[in-house]
């Protein structure tokens, strides 16, 4: 079972560490603690929002100490954040990741505090009170790439793991292969690959060979027993 520190313990630990690292002044820390007393929230996010810490210095500090400060959040962020609560495009655009919902509050990993209207908008979108937590940008980028695959174009998803995904057909999303003969010459490469892949399946081929030639392209379909059929485009 993961032990959870009280907000007072978190405030004291983080504040002392930031002071020792020279990232915040005593006056700045006092302002952040007072803001936390009045309105609640995480000290790191409040210090960033109030301009009491320099973003670059805070990021370097968190990069080194985030494991000790928030081991439970780090584990969830790397293993299974609540990605279903937020569209991928929104998460990527604002560089944020929904971590988990606990006691009716959504812990949200963010890299900046520059958009004051963002948190209320996310609360309206998700129906949860949002608890923004400043995380190292590299950690957020890692989670975004892993749990929000980047769709280069419809049906072509790139993942940080290298296990990319190419969707041949999905009627719900309007992704379907055309016959190779009707694909436009200026069509994206994915359209051509989708058309040739579907044609290979239709012909029962196990191997697909594309040979560029002068003024044309020769496509060879080879079956499991070595039988071949061709197509000139």
Mean pLDDT: 88
Q: Total number of β-strand segments? A: 9
Assign a percent range to the helix content: 40-55%
The structural class is alpha+beta
Largest sheet: 3 strands, mixed
Strand portion: 15-25%
Quick one: overall form? elongated
Strand order, main sheet: write it out.
1-2-3
The number of helical segments is 9
Radius of gyration (Å) = 25 Å
**H/E order of the elements?**
HHHHHHEEHEHEEEHEEE
Gap from first CA to last CA: 62 Å
Flag low-confidence runs: 1-11
Structure description:
This protein has 233 residues and is an alpha+beta fold. The chain is 43% helix and 20% strand. It is built from nine helices and nine strands. It has helices spanning 7-20, 26-39, 43-49, 55-69, 71-79, 88-94, 118-126, 137-147, 189-202; strands at residues 96-102, 105-110, 129-134, 150-153, 156-158, 165-166, 207-213, 216-222, 228-232. It has a three-stranded mixed β-sheet with strand order 1-2-3, sandwiched between helices. A hairpin with a 2-residue loop joins β7 (207-213) and β8. The N and C termini lie far apart (62 Å). The model is unreliable at 1-11 (pLDDT under 50).
Helix and strand arrangement:
Layout: H1 7-20, H2 26-39, H3 43-49, H4 55-69, H5 71-79, H6 88-94, E1 96-102, E2 105-110, H7 118-126, E3 129-134, H8 137-147, E4 150-153, E5 156-158, E6 165-166, H9 189-202, E7 207-213, E8 216-222, E9 228-232
Parallel strand pairs: 2-3
Antiparallel strand pairs: 1-2, 4-5, 5-6, 7-8, 8-9
Helix pairs in contact: 2-3
